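Side project, low priority. Logging it here so it doesn't get lost.
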Amino acid sequence: MELSLTRKQLNECKVYLDPLIREIRASGNTDRAAWSMKYLKNQFTCLGIEAKIFRGIIKDFFKNNVSPAETGIDTCALYLWNLPEREFQYAAIEILMKFKKLLKKEDIQLLEYMITSKSWWDTVDGIAAWLCGTYFNKYPEQIKSVTNSWVKSDNMWLQRSALLFQLKYKKETNTDLLARYIELLIDSKEFFIRKAIGWVLREYSKTDPSWVAGFVENHELSGLSRREATKYI
């Protein structure tokens, strides 16, 4: 999936986001950048900004700038996402989180694009649990068709997102859907799928430990998934 912006949208985003982009770039640290890139397996270019400083920059930007309603949160997020440094993918997620109540039904295309491009756990997990979780709460009629296509795809990050979108649902978790998706992926050899299975079960065990205990007992989970799932039981 490819998404692009019109020239008009690019110009609007540039005007709105340039102060943020300049501040983020000015706050980079060469030594920290080298460490960050190594931590992310040298898959991405990093500016190297401490999390506390980064959060402060984002907070100040939102404090001093009006909502990007006219420009569009989706176009702003895509503009940032397509910039080369990793910090701008984080900034795209922050903008969507800040204005998540404005997510439109068609924004699932943007979320899927963000999951499947520049993919690694540091972005995918937040998109899945925070953004997709919020999106599907707002548009529950989208859940089965979209997440079913994800779990049956050959993209590991979409599969992981199908598992993790309910991570914060607690009592609202659809356990039938969760069980079915785990069963579809239970034989996966991918570390990130096995970890996600254990993680979502571990998180749900805080709400319903007996359900998780029963599920673990009745399924042949990988050692990693089982250890994660039973951590709090």
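Brief comment: The two ends are 40 Å apart (CA to CA).
Revisit when time allows.
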